Amino acid sequence: MGYIKLACLVTHVWGRSYWIGSYLNFSFARPVVKKPTFLRLRGSFEYEIQSWKHSIPLFFTTQGFDIFRNREISSGAGAIREQLADLDLRVLIDSSLIEWKELGEERSPDNENEWEDRKVGRRKNFLVRRIELAKHFLRTNIEPEWMVLCLLPVLPPELRPIIQIDGGKLMSSDINELYRRVIYRNNTLIDLLTTSRSTPGELVMCQEKLVQEAVDTLLDNGIRGQPMRDGHNKVYKSFSDIIEGKEGRFRETLLGKRVDYSGRSVIVVGPSLSLHRCGLPREIAIELFQTFLIRGLIRKHFASNIGIAKSKIREKEPIVWEILQEVMQGHPVLLNRAPTLHRLGIQAFQPILIEGRAICLHPLVCKGFNADFDGDQMAVHVPLSLEAQAEARLLMFSHTNLLSPAIGDPISVPTQDMLIGLYILTSGNRRAYQQKRINFDSPLWLRWRLDQRILSSREVPIEVHYESLGTYHEIYGHYLVVRRTKKEIRSIYIRTNVGHISFYREIEEAIQGFCRAYSYDI
Fold first, then answer.
1. In this structure, are residues 189 and 211 in contact, taking their beta carbons and an 8 Å threshold?
2. Domain edge (last residue) among 138, 153, 168
3. Is residue 154 a contact partner of residue 3, using CB atoms and an 8 Å limit?
4. Which residues form a coiled coil (predicted)?
5. What angle do the packed helices 306-315 and 318-329 form, to 10 degrees?
6. How many CA atoms lie within 13 A of 48 on its CB side?
7. Do both 496 and 444 map to the same domain?
8. Residue 226: inside a domain
9. pTM of the predicted model, to two decimals?
10. Domain range enclosing 392
């Protein structure tokens, strides 16, 4: 990679406002004096002789003042580099931590001075940010003065092409124009410093500012206010514009590229699936697990080489589906829905073969992905290494991620049509007896086990029906108790419907299965 040797130091625009400001802890417009200078020495004389008074003005008007200024006075990026080079990050961390503790002790009791508390809070936040930044630089072995540039890297030609179009005209990338602007201003500054000995210092400083502005525009056009435009009033694309965003260099070319052992399809609802299972279409599954299929066919002597195994897979012989079922039982898959905003954006599932071309997903896991079934797409990946498979099974399976990692609330809860279905399933219809039919919502009396306590000692029956044999029926709101003459309970009936019975049976089986699995783990 080539580079441009700058005639003056420039600060990097990405770190100027946050990193450099956090380290130095003062405004860039404030002058800084770090050592005794000739200017400060002059003020220490109590009695000035006549010759001294006449020599000072002469000194500031001679050519030797340029040497003195370069040695004693720093401005711009050079002054910032000197300040950053003098920093000891470990001392900075210790001093910031001590100040943070002192500020915590100085907080006013009972919020007597709200303005002072806010001021202390802002200062403490700044100190925390400063400590974290210093620790990051120490951990990555980065020196603070590296944020000031003396060499400007130049992108390879492939990333800033020049294309010849019809008519012999050349179409160039915006980066080339911004580089040309930097080179032109840098060469002008070199000429001022080398060829012209009598150049005023103000002109040199002005040209240094122009070089800094050109570098800022190259890195981030528009950060200094009005962006640079071409002859057609179109804003030039800077380096930041090329790499940031969804269409940037990283997300479009490097991070978003296709990878092996992955696929993508639309998701549809699979209510009959278990929470930890997903349905993979045969077309996707046979491509994802093709290498495992080839190995299985050769190991079981259904194919003598890779070519024959691939031909069997293309013809989709019955033995291929049998081996594919065996392979999928031992390999979990990862489902991901972009954008991946939190940990539950990628979860592991046990795949099963299904017909069609869409991925089937249990509706309860949609909230973790922030997905719904209106055309959303998901990517499926196959973990290859043993470490990745173990992580998927132990940490990433959907039935082990039932709580939100952010707030701890349940995340696999029924919503929308699931709630409507549960309501319809468990709602009652009092007219079912008159219609002479039994549906899911038809009320009926279900005999209850005597060992299950549903009676309340304070509850009073609505009605009591006595029979000739001495037994009597106590009718409550949702249940019926049949007693003998000695108040001994003979039987209990609860008022329910088929939907309630089906719903609670599923809950009971799920709880029993969980208890059995938990007892096995212990």
1. yes
2. 153
3. yes
4. none
5. 100
6. 12
7. yes
8. yes
9. 0.50
10. 258-289+331-408
Rounded distance between C-alpha atoms, residue 493 and residue 455, angstroms = 11
Number of C-beta neighbours around residue 204 at 10 A = 17
- Asked whether the beta carbons of 472 and 483 are under 8 A apart, the reply is yes
Residue 392 binned pLDDT confidence (cut-offs 50, 70, 90):
very high
Cβ-contact 361, 351 below 8 angstroms: no
Amino acid in the structure at residue 253: T
Enumerate the β-bridge partners of residue 496.
444
**R_g of the chain computed on alpha carbons:** 39
User: Is residue 308 domain-resident?
Assistant: no
Tell me, what DSSP letter sits at residue 229? B
How many C-beta neighbours within 10 Å does residue 314 have? Answer: 10
341: three-class secondary structure by DSSP: coil
CA–CA separation, 414 and 276 (whole Å): 16
How many C-beta neighbours within 10 Å does residue 315 have?
8
Q: 116, 140, 149: which is closest to 10 by C-alpha?
A: 149
| The token pair that represents 475 in the structure block | 């009718």
Question: Both 10 and 148 in a single domain?
Answer: yes
Number of domains in the chain: 4
At 251 the three-state DSSP class reads helix
The answer to whether residues 271 and 374 belong to one domain is: yes
Contacts of 420 (CB under 8 A, 6+ apart): none
Model confidence at 487, in pLDDT bands (50, 70, 90)? confident
Same domain, 182 and 205: yes
Residue with tokens 């001294």: 52
The pLDDT assigned to 196 comes to 60
What element of type H or E holds 119? helix 114-139
What pLDDT, on the 0 to 100 scale, is given for residue 383? Answer: 92
Q: Are 194 and 7 in contact (CB under 8 A)?
A: no
- Exposure class string for 33-63: b at 16+ Cβ within 10 A, else e: eeeeeeeeeeeeeeeeeeeeeeeeeeeeeee
Q: Which residue is listed with tokens 């072995």?
A: 141
Q: Are residues 97 and 149 in the same domain?
A: yes
Q: Is residue 147 part of a domain?
A: yes
Section 41-59 average pLDDT = 47
- Phi and psi at residue 351, in whole multiples of 5°? -80, 150
Which residue bears the tokens 């974290």? 132
Q: How many Cβ atoms are within 10 Å of 422's Cβ, its own excluded?
A: 13
**8 Å CB contact between 337 and 369:** yes
Is the same domain home to 102 and 22?
yes
Is the model's pLDDT at 157 over the cut of 70? Answer: yes
Residue 107 is given by DSSP the state: P
Kindly state the tokens that stand for 377.
Answer: 């797409």
End-to-end CA separation in angstroms for the chain: 60
Query: CB-based contacts of 39: which residues, under 8 Å, 6+ apart?
Result: 72
354, β-bridge pairs: 281
Going by C-alpha positions, the residue among 421, 427, 420, 349 that lies closest to residue 381 is 349
Q: So what's the pLDDT on residue 197? A: 64
Residue 59 lies in a domain: no
